[in-house]
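U., I forgot to send this yesterday:
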Amino acid sequence: MIELIKNTNINFMGKRKIAFVVSGILAVIGIIAIVQIATGRANLGIDFAGGTAIQLKFDKPVVLHDVRITLENGGMKDFDLQDLPTENKILIRVKKTEQELGQVSDIITNILSQKFPENTYVVDSTTVIGPKVGSRLRADAAKAVAMAVIGILIYVAFRFQFKFGVGATVATFHDVLAVLGMFYLMGKEINLILITALLTIAGYSLTDTVVVFDRIRENLRQRQRESVEAVMNISINEVLSRTIVTSLTVLLTSISLFFFGGEVLHDFSLAMIMGVIVGTFSSVFVASPIVLLWGGKRPFAKK
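Result:
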């Protein structure tokens, strides 16, 4: 692998207090976001809040802004638009209450038919999700994230030691909280696409952390006279180049998706960009310091 940085001697462990402050702030924002999501006060997508999604295919190209103005003038509120210009398709997603379900698609088609009589369209698909279904999806998504975190704890504890499992789990959960919190602060929609991105970030962050842990375990066996803190610093410096190259590769791919992947992948790629940056930070500044705090100055048992 290409080595961007060679023979570094950065005192990562010495900066752990600063890192913990930054991570603590991100984690608190993430916890606030979870509370807001649980109480339904965050910007939830129709996956979680309930609503209607209707996809229309027009005969001719249609300007998204014109559709938005038309729907607003027709009395529609709390809706999002996505277009597929190459196929003349528009996806309209509307958050609604339970008593209005089933009527939204009729209202939308009536409004657009009156505004664009010369540009006929067909309804490709209509999806209606009630608030109860949305609530269940929200609970299922939370369970999926929780199970992923527990699985990480078990996997890393089995592969290394329990204290390493705790470090990896805290770092991974930190990444999920940080991205979720930033999405909440930005007012971005919380939906199943974001949950997919969060689980992907968890997998990426774990892989990056395991590489660092592998080197720490190896060096702990070879450098038994040195302090655990010194061995951790040496290990992180040794894999730093690999960490940066891997992160840059994933980051460039995510940036490409952000700019050229279209509306559907826009939020997913944005979450990935944030996740790669936060995940790299936590692999270096959070996971290993947590293990150090948990294990103290005692030599780590060989395994």
